[in-house]
Design a protein that fits this description.
The structure is a homodimer of 427-residue chains. Chain A has helices spanning 21-29, 52-56, 69-72, 135-154, 158-164, 174-190, 220-232, 274-278, 323-341, 377-390, 394-410, and strands at residues 12-17, 35-41, 45-47, 66-68, 79-83, 86-90, 95-98, 103-105, 108-111, 115-117, 166-170, 204-208, 235-238, 243-246, 250-253, 256-259, 262-265, 269-271, 288-289, 295-296, 299-304, 309-310, 356-360, 364-368, 373-376. Chain A is an alpha/beta fold and 427 residues long. A 6-stranded mixed β-sheet of chain A has the order 5-2-1-9-21-20, with helices on one face. Chain A has a 4-stranded parallel β-sheet with strand order 13-12-11-17. Chain A has a 3-stranded antiparallel β-sheet with strand order 6-7-8. In chain A, helix 1 (21-29) packs parallel to helix 9 (323-341) and helix 4 packs antiparallel against helix 5 (158-164). The first copy, chain A, is globular and about 70 Å long. The N and C termini of chain A lie far apart (54 Å). The relative contact order of chain A is 0.15. Chains A and B meet through strand 5, helix 4 and helix 11 of A and strand 5, helix 4 and helix 11 of B. Chains A, B: Residues 13-330 form the FAD/NAD(P)-binding domain.
Amino acid sequence: MTPEQPRSSDRHHVVIVGAGFGGLEATYRLAGAPVRITLLDRRNHHLFQPLLYQVATASLATSEIAWPIRYLLRGRPEVTTLFATVSGVDVQGKRVLLDDGDSLPYDTLILATGVRHAYFGHDEWEPFAPGLKTLEDATTLRRRILVAFERAERETDPQRRAALLTFVIVGAGPTGVELAGTIAELAKDTLPPDFRNIDTRSTRVVLIEAGPRVLAGFPDDLSAYAQRSLESLGVEVMLNEAVTECSADGVVYGGKTLQARTLIWAAGVRASPAAEWLGAPHDRAGRLQVNPDLTVSGHPDIFAIGDTVAIDGPDGKPVPGIAPAAKQQGRYVAQTIKARLRGETLGPFRYRHSGSLAQIGKHKAVIDFGRFKLRGAIAWWIWGIAHIYFLIGLRNRLSVAISWLWIHARDQRAARLITQGSSKVAR
Amino acid sequence: MTPEQPRSSDRHHVVIVGAGFGGLEATYRLAGAPVRITLLDRRNHHLFQPLLYQVATASLATSEIAWPIRYLLRGRPEVTTLFATVSGVDVQGKRVLLDDGDSLPYDTLILATGVRHAYFGHDEWEPFAPGLKTLEDATTLRRRILVAFERAERETDPQRRAALLTFVIVGAGPTGVELAGTIAELAKDTLPPDFRNIDTRSTRVVLIEAGPRVLAGFPDDLSAYAQRSLESLGVEVMLNEAVTECSADGVVYGGKTLQARTLIWAAGVRASPAAEWLGAPHDRAGRLQVNPDLTVSGHPDIFAIGDTVAIDGPDGKPVPGIAPAAKQQGRYVAQTIKARLRGETLGPFRYRHSGSLAQIGKHKAVIDFGRFKLRGAIAWWIWGIAHIYFLIGLRNRLSVAISWLWIHARDQRAARLITQGSSKVAR
């Protein structure tokens, strides 16, 4: 665009791995800098993870919360988007290694590779209690939830039918709370008129949490409110209970066995292997320990941001693994790179907590803005408007607004589809 | 609802296998009859197949053209919907056999089990040239099409890159024509600004047809118009060419090899195994040969309707395998069952051809209403309005209208998602 720029291949080359909230924000904020950028992701889409639980519960379609990464950057000729999987980093040669044998040189590297759910040494539980991080995770959960009701409709044995109509969510953070509330509403409001042999209102939704309260990241009173709201939706909240076994039959916790055919894991995460690629220090969850300027120790040309990083905020508490934190870090790193190219330096990264939000069913939410707290219907409206605001593009905003309108006005959920499995192969 | 009805289990039991256009229409039209109905399908959703090619080409989301079957019948307490796969029929015992060992008694049976795509004795071609009949087929094609562009962006060898940017569609019926036109527009209008290393406008879309013209079911002049329109979109139309080989490298036709990494099969269908279940006469494509009242010979209590049936219309030509034909047959069978329960009989089924429509790219269509024919932009508007009209529910009509508006106004396609495969596993 600007005529006097050097040939693009001579420019400082920033390689960004991961097009989540952090990686995408860094790419956006590097606009206008004298760099060329390569953005790598092993998916072709950026995912709006805060609403992923709504895909898992048939409320939203996959395409309503995902955008092709290269489409988002179509107006940025200096950005090349590559659909590729990173397998390591050659820090000496300054190259990113790809799983197909290719590699890519970098001048500056930004690792924004996120997390997966983790089973604390019990990976054998994953087939029975899948987690929720990707679109495929969401459509898998959606299939399992919907198939459980379908199979219950055909089951004549009361015990097996009860197990099919028991849904267990392990972990009562925002994802667990939001899943539990939405599944309860699906069973109580959306599905009853559609079934003949079962009363879906008899569905049990059990939320098991190892800690002493739900939404541990929120103030005590909002946690208590969230628990009461869940219980009024019919969710059974079990606190201070550690799950000791997940199997095809159900879960074991506190020595008790709960027969359930659908388990969902929302209890913990493990960072991507970025720390292994670099041989760099990390915490127990695999998160990279970074310098105050978000560079990796001994590698001033490598930044790490987002969920894959462990760093403390100004209040001494860990920066939470949420979208606004990743975006702040992406913005900070972009500014740091721009400053360096001008020969300047910036102060350390300072996290500013803007607030925490969680939805509890279709009419309630809790919001903690620090200075003020909100709960109930008004909080739900703020929650809804904020999420529509943060979606990308008018088309998806319209589409999600219509989907929510139908859920609220008619208890009709847009995407009750069982895919990747006919009745023959569906578990 | 009506107080004096007999206990529902004493009622005449109609079992309907398949909730496509025919099976669903029969269910709707039996409303008010003194029967109870069980509707079986191995999918949980009714699919609007005429727009399936738009899911395959990233224009529409899966949930925009599919509805949970039991939701559509929520207001009909005498209808039980079961998510189940039929494996046979015990005509002596009058029972439908399910693949899990269960069975279901019927008084009257309606088979509306449809077709799959067929390879004319070359089933080994299926992995290389998938067809398009289910939602999973559509998301598989979508993944292959989008991955081909992604891999071309990273490919440096010119020959391999050209093969990645060559898309071959085998069969120039409505599905083949609609796929070819839409892929050409995707490459020419939607994708160019998003790629840096390739010019997606250099994409080749090749439509191979064994017969002498495209859209063989339409009048000659509309076929010629459709071919010209496709060619103006850049589609290469090869007529009178039989494909003799499909492989990972491409296709062979007329002794020539065309290197292509993406092949799509739109060349033929084979009926579901309903004829095998009954040991009844069928044509070469496996379609049941039925009596003029759509009953199966020797089985007056078994009807067969829709694509799985071969029957001639009043003009002596075969009834086409399209949605309006299946719906007419579903309606006729419902009326026949009602008449029989009153002790009456109806005359034979008479097919009335209401018209044929096909879209060619986003601004043109051809319509053959028999008495009058239409082509071009006005035909496209009629095509679009007709398809939105036949969608079910205001929500999906709104949603599809918005999706089409964005395609037309901004060349932005709603669902450019590669799912069920990261860059690591995507072919």
